[in-house]
């Protein structure tokens, strides 16, 4: 069963019909429309008010906006409290929290009212996010509300484990537009026919029926909930595989048992299939995350082979005999060109795969801009640059203090090959192109794909370990592990890969052109080391606050 559950408010958590219909009655009366039968006004419960006033009362858009204002005149003081929780809702929420479900509210009602109602009934503490529309008329469509809830949960592109619960057609349609499934409830204001036609995957007649949301595994759900657990595509694939296996006589383990009905047999077969998928899926997901690294490494090997071929061709043209040592030395001396061409070619290939990932993740979510094209405020870009510089310098200093570079000279040997190289080549290859290509590989694909099926902190750690191993020596492994974790956290907190790229570029450029003279100063004045480390920590505090704390506090205030 889904781990993250979004609830509608009116007609799902609360019985708000009395307050809403009386406020609608009041607003219509201001236009000379007298409606004494409150039952006829129940169609206003759930859908956006503006559309309902235009449809029911035949009002123009301008008059409908005034009607919403009249509605709120009464609702703010009286209507909001003509409301009650449905019986057993509190017990349901407690059950879901005990089973570690992540809960949220996504309502078309203005968010300020949603929060006030939940606080009034003292159930607001059950919900991780509470999202509604804006008082100025923005974000009234259900799909927009759900998208905002997913954004606040950092689930823009990880929707497989999210489920919506609502009582009206627009709840189901909004969920489908966002690429998630919806359970319909008929104890609210919608009908079974309305919900089924809209595409609800399961219909709950009572609040007790929603207890299925707490099911931790497939065996504890009923046959009616299979459509919630398994998508139509997966069910079709499994059914086709089972039929094929039965024809081949290979499914001895799912023969019908005596007294077992068809539904139980199918459930047992699906459980067996799920066990097989559980064993295979982690390996597939790990391969899916790692193969871009292998592909990028393969491209670098091809570039080196091409350089060797060029040097051998030059020797043939000049009439020189083949000299493997000379060729190896030339390749080492032209290491920056190898980085340049690998970053250009490999970066292009990785970008194409990365963009395909984006399109795949947007499937079924029309007119939604990719999360990795977020334009963060200028202070955020400034923060990631400053944090990239101060963080990388701090990690460099720690490595220098531990004398690891003298124990493992591989790093210094690689750095020596860069001395005396043209500034433009250093800047283009190591300073700009290599960070862009590496961020596409290690954060854009490795970390992002790992995060699809594991906790964010574990995805950060594992992707950073892979990033460190790629660099090939102990000193760079430690440095890349630390900085890679920092870049992944930047990506995680800002929601845009551009932040990680900016931090990585800033760190590399600083390492090339800024850290050398500081290291020389410390070597000649070792007493300044504590002061410098403290300054780097203080320099990182403010940008770290903007990236890791400011965004969270803003979401809490919202």
Number of strands: 8
Overall SS class? alpha/beta
Spatial strand arrangement across the major sheet: 5-4-1-6-7-8
Main pleated sheet: 6 strands, parallel
What sequence of helices (H) and strands (E) makes up the elements? EEHHHEHEHEHEHEHEHHHHHHHHHHHHHH
Helix content: 55-70%
Radius of gyration: 30 Å
Number of helical runs? 22
**Arithmetic mean pLDDT:** 79
Distance between the termini: 29 Å
User: Which regions have little confidence, pLDDT < 50, spanning 5+ residues?
Assistant: 217-240, 249-264, 363-375, 551-558
Strand portion: 5-15%
The coarse overall form would be: elongated
Mind explaining what this structure looks like?
With 558 residues, the chain is an alpha/beta fold. 64% of the residues lie in helices and 6% in strands. It contains 22 helices and 8 strands. It has a 6-stranded parallel β-sheet with strand order 5-4-1-6-7-8, with helices on both faces. It has a two-stranded antiparallel sheet with strand order 2-3. Strand 6 (162-166), helix 7 and strand 7 form a beta-alpha-beta unit. Helix 19 runs antiparallel to helix 20 (497-513). It is elongated and about 100 Å long. The model is unreliable at 217-240, 249-264, 363-375 and 551-558 (pLDDT under 50).
